[in-house]
Amino acid sequence: MANMINLLMAGLATGAIYALVAIGFTLLWQTSQTINFAQGEFVMLPAFFVLAALNLKAPLWLALLIGLGASLLVLGALFKRAVVDPMLRHGVLPLAICTMALSIFLKEGVKESYSAEASPFPSFVPGGNVSLLGAQISIQSVSIFVFALVVVFALQAFLMRTSTGRQMQATAQNPSVARLLGIPVERMILYTFLINAGLVALASFLVSPVYLAKFSSGETLGLAAFIAAIVGGFNQIRGAIAGGLLLGVVDNFAAAYVSTQYRGAVPLFLLIAVILFRPQGLFGRAEERTV
Amino acid sequence: MSGSKAAEPVLRVKDIVAGYGEMTILNGTTFDVRPGTITTVIGPNGAGKSTVFKTIFGMLKARSGSVTFKGQDITNAPPRRLLTLGLCYVPQGRNIFPELSVRHNLELGGVSAGAGVDVPARVEALMERFPMLRKKSGQQASTLSGGEQKLLEIARSLLLDPQLMLVDEPSIGLSPLMVQEVFGILKDLRQKGVSVLMIEQNARSALEISDDGLVLELGRTRIQDDAARLLADPRVGQLFLGGVVGDAA
């Protein structure tokens, strides 16, 4: 029982991070048909922005702020201007391939310019354990879970309850009509990219203390978040949340009860099952498209 | 019926040339819309009916020619400016935000509102006028029937109190009852002094409620005349109204 609770909590913490990254996936897809295969590297990179700032003797809070700012600039605005805008004109697929190239570029770039080794990353949440129903729960896991959840709900509230949020949704659901009503569609799309950059930066700051900052750490994370987004239904934020949490929990339980060697395969089994039996995902709606 | 022909037109489209890429669709389209009238545009497929609307509303760039609204040049003006000036556009097909509530769909019609406009009050007034919208205000717009969605679109376009409404195929896919309702709204608008420029495949019914008619062919205005005279014109009857003039509608 104690073990189960531990596993569940660890799974929810991992899952919450998957969810943050998966939400970014779905947002980019909804507003600008971008399937970002560099999303994992987008989570890897902000940690190095922070490490670079720390090396310049910045205090942690400032380094985190600089990391967030640099992410918004590079992974948000610059990514949209330099990669998405020029490539999207050629179609969804060329853009997707371009993001694969970007992922390799970012990985190798960090490896060459910073280090090929894993670097420790300071945690801004307290360590230690608390006792719950006889289990020793890591405070870090709980904090990650709670923090990610608060951010997700704040984002949902922004999208649902503010006029700007609804204009963003309108842009995602029907861009040509949004334009007709005078909604600044381009600006709404930019906001989406900034939100995605914020989400990956946050995921980076939460996950790096646990798994260390390493140039290759985006590989598994990007794949997991991608699968989480598909499992949940690619076009729904609540789907991405459910998909992320489910994947995190299943992943942790599989590692403990099935086999650590097959750990990496379990999300893929989940993916195959969903595609076979519920291709629109757990919460998604079928999208029609003329080919 | 409406005022004298001499009245200053609310919309003047003059020698418009526009198209997509290499293709030219509008070849010097020219016509006027008189204030407080309903004008119906008819013409074969590919004549450029929808293209005219898109060009007027700044969705497609006019290569030459001019569009004037109440004496102001609005050629190639962006939608936001047109909406504030008093133009609105209800395109063909479904133009709602399916996953937003009916109320939020309506509110988005006020995005371009100037500082002095009380959008919530306008939303209330529209719900007063269309009780169906109030009844379903909390529902996702995708749950509305086709006709209800069209009503929602029309209501949304009225949020900024337009003086000219461009409406493209409002009756398509609607039940006969709903078509009557939509046409009723357009007649109501005319009563309030709003001008309507409409494209309608159901040309006979549309001309019957119209003051003026306009035949577009290959991107040019072939005939502009009284709607009644167009209805009686044997050429028009044969080509666009499906059969002999004087048939029981």
UniProtKB/TrEMBL annotation, chain A:
GO terms for cellular component: plasma membrane. Pfam families: BPD_transp_2 (PF02653). It is a multi-pass membrane protein. One of its GO terms (molecular function) is transmembrane transporter activity. Its main location: membrane. Keywords: Amino-acid transport, Cell membrane, Membrane, Transmembrane, Transmembrane helix, Transport. The chain crosses the membrane at residues 6-28, 60-79, 91-110, 130-159, 189-211, 223-250, 262-281. It is found in: Cell membrane. One of its GO terms (biological process) is amino acid transport. Belongs to the binding-protein-dependent transport system permease family. LivHM subfamily. This is Branched-chain amino acid ABC transporter permease. The lineage of its organism: Bacteria, Pseudomonadati, Pseudomonadota, Alphaproteobacteria, Hyphomicrobiales.
Automatic annotation (TrEMBL), chain B:
Residues 11-243 form the ABC transporter domain. Coiled coil: none annotated. Keywords: Amino-acid transport, ATP-binding, Nucleotide-binding, Transport. GO terms for molecular function: ATP binding; ATP hydrolysis activity; branched-chain amino acid transmembrane transporter activity. It comes from the Bacteria. Belongs to the ABC transporter superfamily. This is ABC transporter ATP-binding protein.
